[in-house]
Design a protein that fits this description.
The complex is a heterotetramer of chains A (95), B (118), C (110) and D (328).
Chain A lengths: L1 H21 L3 H25 L6 H26 L6 H6 L1
Helix pairs in contact in A: 1-2, 2-3
Chain C lengths: L1 H26 L3 H27 L3 H30 L9 H10 L1
Helix pairs in contact in C: 1-2, 2-3
Chain D lengths: L1 H21 L3 H21 L3 H25 L12 H18 L17 H12 L4 H9 L1 H21 L24 H24 L7 H27 L2 H24 L14 H37 L1
Helix pairs in contact in D: 1-2, 2-3, 3-9, 3-11, 5-6, 6-7, 6-11, 7-10, 7-11, 8-9, 9-11, 10-11
Classes of the chains: A mainly alpha (95), B mainly alpha (118), C mainly alpha (110), D mainly alpha (328).
């Protein structure tokens, strides 16, 4: 049964990656990164039990704590910079 | 399933060349540095691939357990330190890029070279 | 035995919600609906999968760790989604649908 | 089945790498690099390298994104578009790829227990760690004791890189002053109340978890490198939320300078203590009357040194980029 959950998480990772690659706005990409992060936590949590070594849950705990920092850093950066170009970055890429 | 046994190495080769491409073909210095980071990750993957033993588990000895196969700890030690060293050296590279950007007003390699010639 | 069945059901349901949210995040038309879909995976999927795994772990250190992970995820990921949506709105990104207040005004006049 | 999961993740990894190189916008490239790091950590974990996965988690998720964004804020965030695809690099890269793939056919298959790498030194480490050092985590034992020289070198590389960044950016520790850098009034995420409250709540837990990883490294995945990166991430989170000035008041620049130097000093002092007490350099067995207890003391001390240096360097580097931005 762990396998079913793992497969669902992996497929969702692929979907989130697709969203991160497609964009179109910066916010979509950050959302995808955040989603990918939580999916990694879940994957690590399930795989520790799949391997029968639950003492490795520390890894999932580390990600659960740290993931937020990346999103906040990106948010701060976007706030400083998006004042200059509020449009989608696809438009910027075209220009 | 035999060909899957080499899949990790092929991914290593692809990542290696992706990083290499970014370093030699992109003119933007930040992009080059990201390329080096990808190249580095490819090497990490190569080492960690070599540590895996079939039916093995992470080399943290379980008390009381007998007949457990442990994966190879040595490549893990090398890569563990390499990751932290990698981020420290990347920070140094970024610092140099920041200074280049301030001096030349650009981080594109060909433009800085042109400015040098003048 | 009952615990096993319960944890399998939770894992299956969690897997379904995670997948549904992921699909939504890829297929929804604009940022805010995608944020909603991603919120589904981050809350519902996380709760179900982690409690499914926790039933297997039982009252042990692993169970406590799982509970901690769940608590931190439930604190951080909605916050991140909220902050993102907030930032996107203030940066001038508008939803595809008109704001809700226009519709409620409609209803009042009716 | 697990192999198939790994194959799937590796495929995603390659796609992400292509995406990173193709992205014109450097900011997008940095975010995709964040996803790349998450995937690497998951793959490391599936391939039985729990310690490495924890390191990648601590470094990749928190610090590396923050550093790249700090540098992007000081340079440009857009790559200049190039009209023509460059032919020569593609040919060079294609030839390299084919050559490397051709070379891999000689490699042992994944998980082959008879691969040459498993024949030589590693079995000795696995066999003798319980008797000679008596800690469960063989990775920590090899890192800190058996191959202590290597780690000593790595600590000095980190030390040197930290000093290098400070002086290349022209922001040595004496110039990092809480009064000179922007405070929360102007910077930081002051206007985002909810993220700020939640983030502040997380900071003590991250630091506490870092300390747990530091001192639990002999029994589970962890150690000085991971703990240093985690604690640094916690301090950086505080700086992001309340501005660099608040972080510099909490952990002053003079402390950071001292932390960067103390790590190699502790490490070297433990090594020299080995010589003074009649052993060899970095031979911990002589540190206590019982050789195994001596090993425990030695590993505890040098891991603490590593953790202190890594924390100091990472936080200093973060402050250096932020201070450079406000010097303009």
């Amino acid at each position: 049964m762990y396998y079913a959950a793992t497969i669902a998480i992996l497929v969702t990772m692929a979907l989130a990656l697709g969203r991160a690659l497609l964009g179109p706005t910066v916010y979509d990409r950050v959302l995808a990164v955040n989603m990918f992060g939580t999916k990694t936590v879940l994957l690590l949590a399930v795989v520790t039990f799949l391997y029968g070594r639950p003492d490795f849950l520390d890894l999932a705990l580390a990600y659960a704590l740290i993931n937020f920092i990346g999103v906040l850093a990106v948010l701060e950066f976007v706030q400083k910079h998006s004042l200059r170009h509020p449009k989608t970055d696809q438009e910027r890429e075209r220009s | 399933m035999d060909f899957l046994g080499l899949y990790n190495y092929w991914v290593f080769a692809l990542l290696l060349s992706t990083g290499l491409y970014a370093v030699i073909a992109k003119a933007n210095l930040v992009k080059k540095l990201i390329g080096i980071a990808i190249f580095q990750s490819a090497v990490f993957l190569l080492y960690i691939t070599m540590d895996k033993v079939d039916g093995g588990t992470a080399p943290i000895i379980q008390a009381g357990a007998v007949d457990v196969i442990y994966s190879n700890p040595l490549p893990q030690v090398l890569i563990l330190t390499a990751i932290v060293v990698g981020i420290a050296t990347t920070a140094l590279g970024l610092a140099i890029i920041v200074r280049i950007s301030e001096t030349y007003g650009t981080v594109e390699e060909d433009e800085t070279q042109e400015l040098d010639r003048e | 035995m009952i615990l096993d069945v319960a944890s399998w059901l939770l894992l299956l349901a969690g897997g379904f919600f995670v997948f549904a949210g992921g699909l939504g995040a890829l297929r929804m038309p604009d940022f805010y609906t995608r944020a909603h879909a991603s919120g589904l995976t981050d809350s519902m999927g996380t709760i179900l999968i982690l409690s499914g795994v926790a039933l297997q772990a039982g009252f042990s250190l692993a169970g406590l760790k799982l509970f901690t992970i769940l608590a931190f995820l439930l604190l951080t990921s909605p916050t991140a989604t909220y902050a993102l949506a907030n930032a996107a709105y203030f940066a001038g990104l508008r939803p595809l649908l008109p704001p809700l207040s226009a519709e409620t005004d409609d209803r009042k006049t009716r | 089945m697990i192999t198939l999961f790994a194959v799937f993740l590796l495929t995603l990894l390659v796609i992400t790498a292509f995406g990173i190189v193709r992205a014109q916008n450097l900011f997008v490239a940095v975010m995709l690099a964040g996803i790349f790091s998450l995937q690497m950590a998951a793959i490391f974990f599936i391939l039985d390298a729990a310690d490495v996965a924890l390191t990648e988690a601590a470094v990749g998720a928190g610090i590396s994104t923050v550093l790249f964004l700090g540098a992007l804020a000081l340079t440009v965030d857009e790559e200049r578009p190039r009209p023509s695809a460059r032919f020569l690099p593609l040919v060079v890269v294609a030839i390299t790829t084919l050559a490397v793939i051709y070379a891999t056919f000689e490699k042992p298959r994944l998980g082959d227990p008879n691969a040459p790498v498993h024949m030589h030194v590693a079995p000795w480490y696995l066999e003798n760690t319980p008797t000679l050092i008596d800690i469960p985590n063989v990775v920590t034992a090899v890192l800190a004791s058996f191959r202590g020289y290597d780690t000593f070198g790595e600590v000095f590389v980190i030390f040197t890189a930290g000093i290098g960044v400070m002086f290349v950016l022209g922001t040595p520790w004496s110039r990092l002053n809480a009064d000179d850098v922007p405070s929360a009034e102007t910077h930081g995420l002051r206007h985002h109340l909810i993220p700020r409250v939640v983030g502040r709540l997380l900071v003590p837990f991250i630091v506490l978890f870092g300390l747990y990883v530091q001192f639990h490294g002999e029994y589970g995945p962890g150690g000085g490198f991971q703990a240093g990166a985690l604690i640094a991430a916690g301090i950086i989170l505080y700086a992001l939320l309340d501005g660099e000035a608040a972080a510099l008041r909490a952990v002053p620049a003079s402390w950071l300078a001292a932390m960067v130097a103390i790590g190699p000093l502790i490490y070297g002092a433990v090594g020299l203590a080995g010589i003074v007490l009649g052993g060899r350099f970095l031979d911990y067995s002589v540190l206590a009357t019982d050789p195994v207890a001596g090993q425990h003391w030695g590993i505890l001390l040098i891991e603490a040194g590593v953790g202190i240096t890594v924390t100091g360097v990472m936080v200093s580097v973060f402050h250096a980029f932020a201070a450079r931005a406000s010097m303009r």
